[in-house]
Fold this sequence. Notes:
Helix content: 25-40%
Radius of gyration: 28 Å
CATH topology of the largest domain: Aldehyde Oxidoreductase, domain 3
Number of strands: 26
Shape: globular
Strand content: 15-25%
Number of helices: 21
CATH class of the largest domain: Alpha Beta
Structural class: alpha+beta
Number of domains: 4
Amino acid sequence: MGKSVRRREDKRLMSGRGKFTDDHQFPGMVFAAFVRSPFAHANVRGIDTAEALALPGVIGVLTYADIQGKVGDIRPNWVVGNSKVPPHPPLAADRVRYAGEAVAMVVAQTREIAADAAELVTVDYEELPTVVDAEAALADTAPQLHENVPGNRIGVFRLKGGNYEDAVKQADRVVSIRLVNQRLIPSPLEPRALCANFDPVEERLTFIVPTQVPHMSRRWLAETLRWPEHRIRLVAPDIGGGFGAKMHFYAEEVLVAFASRHFGLPVSWTETRSENHVATTHGRAHTEYVEAPVTEDGKVLGIRLRSFANLGAYLSNMATGIPTVNTVNYITGNYQITSVDAEVNLVTTNTTPVDAYRGAGRPEAAYIIERLMDAVAGELDIDPVELRRRNLVRANQFPYLPHDGARGKWDSGDYEACLTKATELIGYRRWREEQATLRQQGKYIGIGVICYLELVGVGVSPMMEKVGFDRGGWESAHVRVHSDGKVTLFSGSMPQGHGHATSFAQIVAEVLQLPMDDIDVVQGDTDRVLAGHGTFNSRSMPVGGSAAYLAARKILAKARRIAGIMLEVPEEEVHYADGQFTSAANPTVIPFARVARMAYLAHKLPRDVEAGLDERVFYEPVALGAPNGCHAVVVEVDAETGTVTILDYVAVDDVGVMINPMLCHGQMHGGIAQGIGQALFEEAKYDEAGQLLSGSLLDYGFPRIEQIPRMRTGFHVSPAPSNPLGVKGIGEAGCVGAPPAIVAAVCDALKPFGISHLDMPLTPPKVWRAIHETSRSAT
Length: 779
């Protein structure tokens, strides 16, 4: 552990030998296509499938009438407080509520025939008024989407800590800002795909799906189909990106599995890119009103938040938890802000459902507090880095409870050290001096420096029940030593490009002091891996890795006992190093492989020692880790075109102990790249009729490779006290820190034009328009 080892899986993946869901074939396999509503809100008065069924090669067409009473509704897995759950049938019953909602499913001999037949299904729609904005949806005149959700308000989440009213009284002024965390489309390289094969003899379903949470997906599928869970084998193969969107439960999963049994054939479906934009969950979509009482010397005394979260037409798995628990708990950031008054309105609209996207609430929280800190610095005319330094939690205050309403403590860190290192690496003072000179030359340079933190590694099953999360927080690891001494780890975590086959093998190899080549890692198959909760919330290393570590420790303890029997010495006199057991009392050297063989021969084992060398652990964390860091950015804004160019990017992050530093740098690079996408390019936009204007990659912007700067990523290590590895998690840190850092830098560059804030994405047209509108108003 702690070494930069190249990923073992890359040779296979980069040579084209990866096997993704769409690569799986079953004899006689047929293909599905979906008929989707072109309207955002409409009554379904009738569906005519006759012409589609008459097309040669069509196996059948399913509508709501065919599945009614045979399958259940799609239900969320995290319901916060008294949130209302609107019914969500897998196929629309009598009304559609967003453009892209499935109304029928066609199954045919080829993909092409299925797509053609879907065009022949005629649906009689009665169009209804739509609402796409969360605040507008709460108006008395807004169309009502669900009978059991009056006023379109799913629920209201409140969190209070300290005494905000007293903070206002003590303050010299109150600084306020309105923020929009725009809707994003996760857009993994591989869209969703499914392959189902029901065996009528065994009465068993094999289901191939690129899910981040294999065992949870199996559970949800079994519950919705009303089938026994043990009769479903779910396999998650290689996954071309997940980013949160592939840990949710979708209608297509129910329908493809149901169709395989219904038609008696294997059924395959792969989402098109345009389907991915309307049918796979979106992310973010919050509007926030934030204010802070402050003193003239820059002390932030409290924070008030009024947020409107657009959850879309139905509740996806974790929809109510992301803008509430996952956001509000972190809005004080890295700072000593002891009073909080937060309210989040959860709203349903005629849009694609919204759920977790990389970071899942923590990027929103970091954006709230960091844009607020910049607003405070601007109003008080204090250097933004100095303002942050005055308010930071100090290294001697950990573990730190942010306020008396908080749901967790920040476990360890040195926020000021990260801030100091990042500003030194970026050359903050030098850039400030150059900035003034360059402005006189008509060049607009901006410097943005932000701090962030998050709690990750969920974690703590009783806590999850308390916040309405219908799943546990443990993770499983099963280490099996074969009779030749080779080792297999079966892990409940699930990679989507994380490098688990490398990092998990490093953990087990370190404990057992064996070559990494002797360690195999198995994940993503519910027939081979006993149980698990999968990968999300940066939990793979702190929870899944800890489980693997402890299981390997149990293996070593039993192997040491067997070695003692073989050496004829007490167990405590056995020494183990470099794969060999020795004892000062016996000159014999016993390799690990010989102990493994004896474990299975059992010739010398007493009756109280079971044969075999096989251990399982269900590791339950005692707390969550708190990754944190400081990101610093320098940008140049072209006032003539509005184009933003990133000149330098420095990230100093504290993710605890690093199992594989190379993988940590890679995770940071990927997360920062996605954060750059949100800050400068990406936005899912609807018109007033509920039509997605960014319905393809022609209209939804991604950063190109030349727009991603050469990042300088470094680390400050504060081991996490909450798990045996000391790791905190890293998978989402980059996209938590990047958006507020880049926006801060751009707005800093625009100060000469009187611009203090612009909402993301900061596209060239938006920046250009802001410059010229401000210039016109000044004249």
